Amino acid sequence: MSWISFAVFGYFLQAVSVLGDKIILKKILPSPSSYAFWQGILSLGAVILIPFGFSLIPTDKIFISFLAGAFWLYGLFFFFTALRKADASNVLPVVLSITAILLFIMEGFFMGHQFSPTDLLAGVFMVSGSVSLSLEHRWGHRRKIRGFIIPAVVTAFLFAFSTFLMKYLFGTESFFNVFVWSRGGLFLAGLTLMLSPEYKKEIFQGSKSLRNQRASVSIVINKIFGASGALFVFFALSRGPATLVNALQGLQYAFLFIIGAFLSLWIPTLHKESLSPKAIMQKVFGIVFISFGLFILYFYGN
């Protein structure tokens, strides 16, 4: 299978997880610090992958693996913060576009990766389509924009740094080895949230919600989707250019819209998606751009 196929399936699973994140932040764990903390704790589930190729690696690479995982966890914290203040359809395009630019610069400058004109064209179509998916939204007053734009930008930087470090490690170590070691970084970063008295209080308060079996099972199931999606996306990252793997994240938003639309029609009390004719046309336009970019990349890219 092509790395593109792994990325597509991974982003589908992550779309399900992002929608679950939004619902959980609204109904179960309203505090981003509490949700990020449990994300870090549950990342230890990666130990089930130890039999597939885990081993000791040089100390400097252990540090880089932990750093990549920590950047990802802190990125999730800021992502959840932005997600509480705005719709995923506002947050994701900002994160995606800035992350794509940063990865393009880092991968070209530090790794010397040469992108073909076809690859660049596909990337432009996919990123443009992803950003256009949010254009029909009214972002509101300037204060509201500042409320989510700052954590969204910080999220993009942290995700870009994490992805770049993971790409570097995949070039020197086995996939499962890097993935397991990086999850250790997520776990340790989650524990550092307890160092803040404010976050510690929020974590303990949020933990009370987990006493409800239905709530705790929902979180675990959602994290299984998220972790499985990350596994497929990182495997694609180990085989393909980081910039293009990230550009394919636009598919995650397309899946998010489609799933959200079905939920709005069947279970509107759980999730509400804008389905006005203007909104649908705008999103279809973005999805067509993403699909065209994917077609170019799959059949004509390097």
From TrEMBL:
What's the protein name? EamA domain-containing protein
Task: Enumerate the InterPro entries for this protein.
Answer: EmrE-like
Q: Which UniProt keywords apply?
A: Membrane, Transmembrane, Transmembrane helix
Organism of origin:
Candidatus Giovannonibacteria bacterium RIFCSPHIGHO2_12_FULL_43_15
Please state the span of the N-terminal signal peptide per the UniProt entry.
none
So where does this one cross the membrane?
Answer: 6-25, 37-57, 63-83, 90-111, 117-135, 147-169, 175-196, 217-238, 250-268, 280-300
Q: Which domain of life, per UniProt? A: Bacteria
